[in-house]
């Protein structure tokens, strides 16, 4: 069934390309992981292009928790459209297409070429989706100079734009100790070591939490989060286990020295005792943020277009991660932008929805933003 859904999704994008009169290509960096790219050639195709990226996959649903069919796109009397992916991020990909449809309808021509990409696997890390694509010759041939991807909407009337993301590390901490009968009080047990390392990690977590609580100028994006998400170990209630494994999900703030941070983690393990070490399930490299100043003409064009529409922007660092991190890692400036305001944030939640008026307004916002960034003159962005 999953493969059929993939085929259906690719077929849908191809139909959209045909309706727009634009060429479409399907690339495979991995089998059954299609990357679909629609291209609108600009007046000066030799200039670095604009990439509008979106992911095709969504997170699972628990149908019994939904008031509407999660894949039915049902609209209620208030104009709220309920569907998995309505916020994350099917709406944005469709808004890209509809903005371009309106531009083409009005015979608008743009200086730079536009590529609209639809990639797989973002919700499971993106390694075999955008991660692999950015390493390919096909991506290099797109000659991308600037990219837009998803961000997070806003529950207020301020639009949030993200110029960077935290660095994600998923750590499995192995604690090896003396096994034995559950009646004994042995030294050097795996459980003792696990307790000590949890205390050290949580002391750091509490410090970051207090920083966030005590400084109103900070957001979650400005501090490092560290959470225990899994605990493994033991075979029977009356046997002291030889091994306990702790999994921590860590999101490192952009201003943290990751080399120094890793040294601190290793020091904590050494302080707990022998046979305690970290294995990284995911260890993203630190990626510099996109500059938001005059040195970045795409940002200037984006910001000016928003100001002309009375769209109030609030730049932030994204607390989570998106496919933009792969693009920024190549030195390409990229912004995360989901133009949804006055909307409850329901990404990955039950009853995810987007109001039709918010959806339609975003099409016009993208129409103006795309026009502005695609008409940036021939000047290197940094």
Automatic annotation (TrEMBL):
<dbReference type="InterPro" id="IPR036264">
    <property type="entry name" value="Bact_exopeptidase_dim_dom"/>
</dbReference>
<dbReference type="GO" id="GO:0046872">
    <property type="term" value="F:metal ion binding"/>
</dbReference>
<dbReference type="Pfam" id="PF07687">
    <property type="entry name" value="M20_dimer"/>
</dbReference>
<feature type="binding site">
    <location>
        <position position="348"/>
    </location>
    <ligand>
        <name>Zn(2+) 2</name>
    </ligand>
</feature>
<feature type="active site" description="Proton acceptor">
    <location>
        <position position="122"/>
    </location>
</feature>
<feature type="binding site">
    <location>
        <position position="88"/>
    </location>
    <ligand>
        <name>Zn(2+) 1</name>
    </ligand>
</feature>
<dbReference type="GO" id="GO:0005737">
    <property type="term" value="C:cytoplasm"/>
</dbReference>
<keyword id="KW-0963">Cytoplasm</keyword>
<keyword id="KW-0862">Zinc</keyword>
<keyword id="KW-0479">Metal-binding</keyword>
<dbReference type="GO" id="GO:0004046">
    <property type="term" value="F:aminoacylase activity"/>
</dbReference>
<dbReference type="InterPro" id="IPR052083">
    <property type="entry name" value="Aminoacylase-1_M20A"/>
</dbReference>
<feature type="binding site">
    <location>
        <position position="55"/>
    </location>
    <ligand>
        <name>Zn(2+) 1</name>
    </ligand>
</feature>
<dbReference type="InterPro" id="IPR011650">
    <property type="entry name" value="Peptidase_M20_dimer"/>
</dbReference>
<dbReference type="GO" id="GO:0006520">
    <property type="term" value="P:amino acid metabolic process"/>
</dbReference>
<feature type="active site">
    <location>
        <position position="57"/>
    </location>
</feature>
<keyword id="KW-0378">Hydrolase</keyword>
<feature type="binding site">
    <location>
        <position position="150"/>
    </location>
    <ligand>
        <name>Zn(2+) 1</name>
    </ligand>
</feature>
<dbReference type="Pfam" id="PF01546">
    <property type="entry name" value="Peptidase_M20"/>
</dbReference>
<protein>
    <recommendedName>
        <fullName>N-acyl-aliphatic-L-amino acid amidohydrolase</fullName>
        <ecNumber>3.5.1.14</ecNumber>
    </recommendedName>
</protein>
<dbReference type="InterPro" id="IPR001261">
    <property type="entry name" value="ArgE/DapE_CS"/>
</dbReference>
<dbReference type="InterPro" id="IPR010159">
    <property type="entry name" value="N-acyl_aa_amidohydrolase"/>
</dbReference>
<dbReference type="InterPro" id="IPR002933">
    <property type="entry name" value="Peptidase_M20"/>
</dbReference>
<feature type="binding site">
    <location>
        <position position="88"/>
    </location>
    <ligand>
        <name>Zn(2+) 2</name>
    </ligand>
</feature>
<feature type="domain" description="Peptidase M20 dimerisation">
    <location>
        <begin position="164"/>
        <end position="273"/>
    </location>
</feature>
<comment type="similarity">
    <text>Belongs to the peptidase M20A family.</text>
</comment>
<feature type="binding site">
    <location>
        <position position="123"/>
    </location>
    <ligand>
        <name>Zn(2+) 2</name>
    </ligand>
</feature>
């Amino acid at each position: 069934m999953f493969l059929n859904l993939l085929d259906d999704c690719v077929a849908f994008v191809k139909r959209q390309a045909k309706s727009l009169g634009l060429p479409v290509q399907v690339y495979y960096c991995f089998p059954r992981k299609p990357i679909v790219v629609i291209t609108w050639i600009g007046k000066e195709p030799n200039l670095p292009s604009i990439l509008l990226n979106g992911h095709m996959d969504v997170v699972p649903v628990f149908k019994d928790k939904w008031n509407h069919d999660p894949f039915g796109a049902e609209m209620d009397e208030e104009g709220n459209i309920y569907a998995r992916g309505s916020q994350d991020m099917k709406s944005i990909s469709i808004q890209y297409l509809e903005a371009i449809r309106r531009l083409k309808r009005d015979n608008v021509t743009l200086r730079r070429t536009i590529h609209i990409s639809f990639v797989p696997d973002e919700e499971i890390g993106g390694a075999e989706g955008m991660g692999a694509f950015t390493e390919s010759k096909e991506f290099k041939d797109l000659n991308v100079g600037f990219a837009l991807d998803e961000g997070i909407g806003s529950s207020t009337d301020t639009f949030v734009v993200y110029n960077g993301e935290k660095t994600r590390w998923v750590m499995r901490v192995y604690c090896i100790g003396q096994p034995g009968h559950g009646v004994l009080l042995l030294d050097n047990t795996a459980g003792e070591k696990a307790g000590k390392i949890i205390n050290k990690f949580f002391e750091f977590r509490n410090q970051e939490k207090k920083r966030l609580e005590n400084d109103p100028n900070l957001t979650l994006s400005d501090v490092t989060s560290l959470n225990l998400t899994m605990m493994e170990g033991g075979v029977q209630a009356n046997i002291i286990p030889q091994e306990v494994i702790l999994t921590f999900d860590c999101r490192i703030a952009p201003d943290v020295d990751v080399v120094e941070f890793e040294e601190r983690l290793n020091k904590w393990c050494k302080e707990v005792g022998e046979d305690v070490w970290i294995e990284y399930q995911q260890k993203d490299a630190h990626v510099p943020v996109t500059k938001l100043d005059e040195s970045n003409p795409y940002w200037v064009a984006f910001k000016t277009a928003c100001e002309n529409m009375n769209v109030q922007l609030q730049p932030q660092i994204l607390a989570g991660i998106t496919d933009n991190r792969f693009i920024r890692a190549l030195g390409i400036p990229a912004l995360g932008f989901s133009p949804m305001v006055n909307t409850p944030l329901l990404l990955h939640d039950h009853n995810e929805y987007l109001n039709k008026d918010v959806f339609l307004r975003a099409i016009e916002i993208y129409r103006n933003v795309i026009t502005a960034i695609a008409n940036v003159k021939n000047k290197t962005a940094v």
